[in-house]
């Protein structure tokens, strides 16, 4: 077996213990005579799995009772459209704070479905910062305020929840959900594609405050309606049963690790280990303003781009996987999601030190 240290941005590393458990249960689930993937989503076995996953997620995030949790398909990208479709009128303004490539995409996808207004943008800093809250141009009558708490590509993260008054706050938490405790009551809607911190791809979790369900128009296709999905416990049609099951295993694993408070400590330490080394190295560089650096995705560059190829080749040989940066930024990126251990970060730093010594 040669599983490496996996720094993939997504689909990303999953806890080995969870993969082993899924492997052990793959052929037959809990004495049922069949794999969990081979049974009806409406049967008692899968309903049990689905309900336990939701209950565990609610416990981990302390989700208040007046929020619905939906397990949907279409990824975070579909939510870029589904959210304005459901909770804004077409002629209504919706405010967007743009701090990177994913928030840009959310603006573009939403533009045909509501009057999307860019309230603030850090584009002028090449998305290495977050615009100060007092400069945001917000409309108290906006349908909602959308932001991206963690920008996966450039590694920029909000470490506080912005205050937007009574307008519902909507957050794309794809690459940061479950990395630390969260006050869900501050949000109208949270969504997250699964393939970073929740489980395998093909699943998106939506946490929506119940009063917003009343906004869902009756004249959109049922399959896009949050109200219909909520009324049908996310089983309007066949859900991604394997993704939902595996997410449930991840939630149990997180609880066994000590929950999100324990993950916060680990994630903070992992990120600090790498940032401290990068900043002190005199060789590698991270361009992001220190106060908004991401705990989950850490981009870094080498002194010259000619060193990228040897860095990638040698790191791969050393069992350090998927360090190539996003094509929009170049350089490297290490994603340190929940399933990435301190051991992996230490191995990366050890390799980076050796590489800098040999090529510096
Ligand atoms: C990965 C990611 C997405 C895209 O998710 P898909 O499931 O591929 O649609 C959107 N937003 C953020 C912040 C991401 O990290």
TrEMBL record:
Main EC class the enzyme belongs to: transferase
Keyword Amino-acid biosynthesis part of the UniProt annotation: yes
EC number: 2.6.1.52
UniProt key word Protein biosynthesis: no
Chain residues that bind pyridoxal 5'-phosphate: 76-77, 102, 152, 172, 195, 237-238
Cofactor: binding details: Binds 1 pyridoxal phosphate per subunit.
Recorded metabolic or biological pathway in which this protein acts: Cofactor biosynthesis; pyridoxine 5'-phosphate biosynthesis; pyridoxine 5'-phosphate from D-erythrose 4-phosphate: step 3/5; Amino-acid biosynthesis; L-serine biosynthesis; L-serine from 3-phospho-D-glycerate: step 2/3
UniProt cross-references to CDD domains, sorted A to Z: PSAT_like
Localization: Cytoplasm
Record family assignment: Belongs to the class-V pyridoxal-phosphate-dependent aminotransferase family. SerC subfamily.
Record text on subunit structure and interactions: Homodimer.
Matching NCBIfam families: PRK05355.1 (NF003764), serC_1 (TIGR01364)
This protein's name: Phosphoserine aminotransferase
Species of origin: Tahibacter amnicola
């Amino acid at each position: 077996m040669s599983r490496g240290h996996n720094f993939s941005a997504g689909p990303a590393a999953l806890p080995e213990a969870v993969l082993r458990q899924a492997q052990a249960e793959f052929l037959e689930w809990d004495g049922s005579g069949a794999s969990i993937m081979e049974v009806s989503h409406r049967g008692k076995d899968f309903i049990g799995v689905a309900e336990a996953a939701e209950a565990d997620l609610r416990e981990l995030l302390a989700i208040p009772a007046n929020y619905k949790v939906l397990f949907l398909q279409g990824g975070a990208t579909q939510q870029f459209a589904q959210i304005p479709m459901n909770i804004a009128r077409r002629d209504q303004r919706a405010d967007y704070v743009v701090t990177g490539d994913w928030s840009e995409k959310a603006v573009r996808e939403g533009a045909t479905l509501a009057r999307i207004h860019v309230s603030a943008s850090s584009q002028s800093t090449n998305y290495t910062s977050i615009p100060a809250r007092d400069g945001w141009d917000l409309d108290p009558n906006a349908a909602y305020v959308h932001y991206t708490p963690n920008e996966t590509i450039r590694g920029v993260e909000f470490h506080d929840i912005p205050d937007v008054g009574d307008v519902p706050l909507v957050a794309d938490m794809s690459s940061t959900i479950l990395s630390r405790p969260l006050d869900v009551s501050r949000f109208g809607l949270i969504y997250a594609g699964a393939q970073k911190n929740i489980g395998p791809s093909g699943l998106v979790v939506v946490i929506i405050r119940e009063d917003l369900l009343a906004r869902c128009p009756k004249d959109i296709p049922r399959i896009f309606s949050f109200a219909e999905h909520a009324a049908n416990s996310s089983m309007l049609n066949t859900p991604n049963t394997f993704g939902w099951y595996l997410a449930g295993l991840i939630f149990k694993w997180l609880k066994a690790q000590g929950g999100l408070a324990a993950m916060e400590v680990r994630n903070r330490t992992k990120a600090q280990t790498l940032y401290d080394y990068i900043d002190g190295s005199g060789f590698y560089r991270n361009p992001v303003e220190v106060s908004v650096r991401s705990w989950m995705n850490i981009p870094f560059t080498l002194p010259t781009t000619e060193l990228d190829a040897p860095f990638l080749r040698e790191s791969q040989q050393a069992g350090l996987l998927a360090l190539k940066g996003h094509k929009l930024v170049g350089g490297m990126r290490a994603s340190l999601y929940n399933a990435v251990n301190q051991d992996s970060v230490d191995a990366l730093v050890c390799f980076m030190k050796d590489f800098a010594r040999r090529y510096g």
